[in-house]
Amino acid sequence: MKHYKNIIIGAMSLMVSLSSALSAQAAGPLFGTNVKTGIEVLKAHKFKELEGKKIGLVTNPSGVDNNLVSTVDILNDAKNVKLMALYGPEHGVRGNVYAGGKVENTLDEKTGIPVYSLYGKTRKPTEEMLRSIDALVYDIQDNGCRSYTFISTLGMIMEAAAEFDKEVIVLDRPNPLGGEKVEGSLVEDGFISFVSQFKIPYMYGLTVGELALLLNGERMLKDGKQCKLTVVKMEGWRRSMTYQDTKLPWILPSPQQPQAISALFYPTTGILGELGYVSIGVGYTLPFQIACAPWIDAIKFSDKLNSYGMEGIRFRPLHIKPFFSVFSGEDIQGIQIFITNYKKAVLTEINFYIMQAIAELYPDRAVFDKANTNRHRMFDLVCGSDYIRKTFTQTNKVSSIQNFWRKDAETFKELSKKYYLY
Question: Which residue, among 231, 246, 250, 202, has the nearest Cα to 420 in the 3D structure?
Fold first, then answer.
């Protein structure tokens, strides 16, 4: 009997040891990475940047720490933080609103904290929405392209903060495209919109913290105003890193960015996708990674695109049947895009080469001759100018718009350097 008793005691001791080990493991990050995002650094600082301030948080499901805990819950549970309000951008604070859907003023189900909509009738916080707070904390994963509306929301909260004497605290996160690629021309007067809110290139090569510093420092906010701005820097991030290099968990910031690799492909077809003329994979398993239509021959199309010799890019034939969106339920053909050398690839120009290939193979289906004219304005807003559309309508050649598209990148890159944090 004593023998069995010793076995039981030993087993219990082993269970306690295992439990302690698991608890210790749980206390550390679930994802092994040398990169600490702004929320991780804020935690390490014991939230000192927020002490003594009534806080409003602008976030969505991508605002998490390395244990996948929401920034909402982290700040709400922190003893020395007074979280007073939440602000929902496109898709909402908890990500429960579909793309383009109206975000409502409500109460957060988990915390009971008021949630104010920043994607609906109101996109810039009003004085009433900010009355209960001293500072706005921003924690959202960006995708590195100006047409992604979260950076427009960032600019809007900075404008409101300047107007109503509030502080903005940005918890920095990686640019998933890295900090070295800058592509696209600046937005022109007359084309400022929520998908091109500021005069920056399409791919701007900055983290959200660096972008906030640039918007403030270069007086790009409304009426040239500046807000009180603090950026909680990351640790361990380098400009050469894409998101995959960070080893951080990817939480989709919007429904059609399900994986970190989705961010790499967004600039390759996202501009063309505004026309709804071909399927770019939204509605299939490869969002932004394809270009397909019922009238395309997959082999001829891939051969044509490969013949252009784009550095770092390769195409393969593809046959699919989308589940929803453009050409839903139809058998269609086209190409899948592969990035073979990220450093050499010019991602945004793939949109225009696809348009050129369509015009050369199918002259009666040239994009701007056939695409819904009601979508032309959105294409122009995303491009930041109507020059691309008007010129391409005449030529259907990338060479005719390439100098225009590339003209501002190097100048902006030089300007940006004084705002680099890494």
Answer: 231
Q: Please state, in angstroms and rounded to a whole number, the distance separating the CA atoms of residues 35 and 29.
A: 11
* Beta strands, E only, 72-129: 82-88, 106-107, 114-117
CB 137 within 8 A of CB 75: yes
C-alpha 34/C-alpha 26 separation (Å) is 18
Distance CA 390, CA 121 (A): 32
Cα gap 32→247, rounded to integer Å = 7
Residue 282 is encoded by which pair of tokens?
């939204």
Q: How far apart are CA 361 and CA 300, in angstroms?
A: 8
CB-based contact 294:332 (threshold 8 Å): yes
pLDDT in tens, 271-312: 999 999 999 999 999 999 999 999 999 999 999 999 999 999
Percent of the chain with pLDDT over 90: 86
CA distance 194 to 150: 9
Which residues are paired to 290 by β-bridges? 336
Beta bridge pairs of residue 170: 138, 231
Helix (H, G, I), strand (E, B) or coil at 108: coil
**Which amino acid, 347?**
L
Question: How many other C-beta atoms are found inside a 10 Å radius of the C-beta of residue 356?
Answer: 22
Write down the pLDDT at residue 22: 37
